Amino acid sequence: MIQLFLTGLSLSMDAFAASVCEGLSDNKKGVSRALVVGLFFGGFQALMPALGYFLGTSFLEYIEAFDHWLAFGLLCLIGLNMIREAFKNEGDSCPLKPRSYAQLLVMAVATSIDALAVGITFAIDGVDILKAAAVIGVTTFVLSFIGVAFGKKIGSKFEKGASVAGGIILVAIGTKILIEHLTA
Q1: Element (H, E) at 99
Q2: Residue 76: which residues within 8 A CB-CB, separation 6 or more?
Q3: Cα 36 from Cα 52, distance rounded (Å)
Q4: Which of 62, 69, 142, 179 has the smallest number of Cβ neighbours within 10 A?
Q5: pLDDT score of 96
Q6: pLDDT computed for residue 143 by the predictor
Q7: Which residues of the chain register pLDDT less than 50?
Q8: What's the pLDDT at 173?
């Protein structure tokens, strides 16, 4: 359960950053907007690992011999990309502020693509996908809701640190999966 929560926390960092951006905008809708943002991001973060899981189980028999390397590679790639992106955007830390529902939908899909890849690793590792999707979705919903409020109050001061921490956690989980499979 702790690993699922840490995975959910890591995957929600992009959504948290986008939610902070929403909070930085001049939007005056407050709690209702925070709920909508949380539902969009949380919903897609729950949906994408489930989709990845079902894709992964479809191909599991073909990748079983190297599945641990695939999980390690995917999680490290996602984690290192999160860290790189945190340092890449030095200027405007919120280049796209999701103001319309269409923009919010695009941001929700974009921030949940990494969850699709994690869902594939869940299939490889035999994780209970319903529990995993629920934990990831709820964690993302809560952090996205908080992110909107946080953005309104404090701004983007901690956005880079959150992305770096999320990336490190995903790399650590990928390394743990690889070590477990190599020592089994």
Answers
A1: none
A2: 170, 171, 174, 175
A3: 24
A4: 62
A5: 47
A6: 94
A7: 95-96
A8: 75
